[in-house]
Specification:
This protein has 7 helices and 6 strands. By secondary structure, the protein is of the alpha+beta class.
Length: 195
């Protein structure tokens, strides 16, 4: 999948619609949008319509819960690595405060998005390991979506087909299982539990 970097105009520049070759956004920001998605947008506009609805994943600027290192005043780090913990504790008071912060930012973005693109809908919100939203939007409005403050990237949400159902055989797992006294025993040798 090709990625096209849409670069921003200098601070104070007037906002304009994004084009295939560039963007006007926050100063210094680069917004990544797939070339295929922008090509479909261009085709829909050329046909004089809005095009069909497409589901995209909008990656927001800023860290998600699992990797937040405490860069915002008043919000303590939540990343296990940053706090010296073995696991993420999503129920801790610090995590709950940071999740409330992310929720408020995503809600503000959703409000701005509906003002700019009234037919756009938020389908899902992601905050734990990814800071973003799944959004349904007319394909002709992708650039308008990318121009909203806080957007870092836009990816089309594609349904991918299963390529194989024979992965264990493909990687040679049965031979290893046989050497380790079977599949059930192999799991026990390398982990504390089997799923």
């Amino acid at each position: 999948m090709g990625i096209l970097a849409l670069t921003s105009a200098p601070a104070g520049a007037q906002r304009a619609a994004l084009q295939l070759s560039g963007a006007v956004e926050q100063a210094g920001a680069t917004i990544h949008v797939s070339k295929e998605l922008l090509q479909r947008q261009r085709e829909a506009i050329a046909k004089g319509g809005v095009g069909r609805e497409v589901t995209v994943i909008v990656r927001m600027q800023g860290e998600p819960l699992a990797s937040y290192r405490g860069s915002i005043a008043g919000l303590a780090a939540t990343s296990p690595r940053a706090i010296g913990s073995a696991r993420l504790d999503a129920r801790s008071p610090n995590s709950q405060r940071f999740l409330a912060h992310l929720n408020a930012r995503q809600q503000a973005f959703a409000t701005q998005m509906r003002g700019a693109i009234p037919t756009a809908r938020v389908l899902h919100r992601y905050q734990a390991v990814f800071n973003g939203l799944a959004v349904s939007v007319p394909v002709s409005r992708i650039s308008r979506l990318a121009a909203l403050p806080g957007v870092a990237a836009i990816y089309e949400d594609k349904l991918l087909r299963l390529q194989t159902d024979a992965s264990p055989a493909f990687i040679g797992a049965p031979a290893l299982w046989n050497r380790l006294a079977g599949q059930d025993k192999a799991c026990l040798l390398y982990t504390s539990r089997c799923v």
